[in-house]
Amino acid sequence: MVFKNYFYLVLLLAFFTGCSSGVGTASDNNIDSESLITTGDTDTDSDSDSDSDTDTDTDSDSDSDSDTDSDSDSDEGIDTAQYANCDNSNDCYDSCWGCAVAWQCKAEDDACLNNSVCKSLDTCIAGCDSAADWEVCSNSCRSKYSGGVALLNARDICVMCNVCSNDCNGESAICDSVVDTGQDTTVDTGQDTGVDTGTPSDCSSSNGFTGIISESDFDIYFPKAERASIYTNAYCDLADMISRLYPAFANTGTATAKKCEVATFLASVKHEADMLKTAREYNPPHNYCDYSNDDYPCVSGQSYYGRGPLQISFNYHYGPYSEVYYGTKTTLLNNPSLVEQNGDLAWGASLWFWMTQEGAQWGSGRNCHSEATGGGGIQGVTEVIFGNWWSSDPTQRQEYMDDISSTLGISSSTCDW
User: Which residues are known to be catalytic?
Assistant: First the structure.
């Protein structure tokens, strides 16, 4: 009996000794294995392994907490259910608008209100309600505060064209320029930074430009077969950018003044961009960096030579235009070549320069828009773009001006008064 019990005791001890050795061996052979995390057996790990496991778990928890906090912050305690369906009030500007900017368009509204130029533009346009001609007043505000146009349009598109599309139906022509619903609602998101693929636009924009020249006449003036690839849809891209950024273009002054603006713009584009054969300057002599400009500093390795239909150049042009299009100066200062890769961006750059910049006439109060609509003609416009008329290849510029003016049914001389 004693022998039997002793025999069982030996077997039992052998069993436990074997089990303990097996766990130790598995742990030793799998110190860095996933089993350390799943078993939770930190006693058998070395201090180094235990710390590593703790760090891994902590990082994982941190990511999870970060996501939770982010969701919570975005809602800011708002009962979002009440703002999920704003478009049912039959009231665009009060009920639906207030509902939209409370949540679904809050980011766009905040972006505008937190930008001093956009906020001033918003206030200016609000004051047009009492003006004799709201459209003229609104266009004047957009020209005065052009740096805020992109952010304001992003907010208005979000509200009128997306969230309140029924309640605000027909209230704003801006929705006509939205080709891809939901994709072009915010100009400053960087969505248009890719290379233009040449996908046809539906060319839905209707504005002063499209009312003066047809796409077929545009294609005769700029033959499609000769254009650079980003200008495949040049007419529609230009029309869309006019509606989105500068609706006052070809919509200021008399009927003749409007035609003169289209004529001088297209004649200038034909000369500067070699009939739209190129989106960049041929053989730039240097990097066009004004190193003295601290507001828009050059980025090492980047060149700010002429790009786009009007060949904007220098860091002090790329930076401010980047603020208008993207909401930050850094995008185009860091990557100015984007302007030669995307049709919308390229046309927007040229319109921005045309409508807002004094160019070579810095400090004069003159810009291409004021010259074209105020009797300066092709010579006045060229002085802003180039600096003078006599050395700017005036013969070719005048020929281009005569040609397009005839297409528009005016004489180029009528644009000089």
Answer: 272
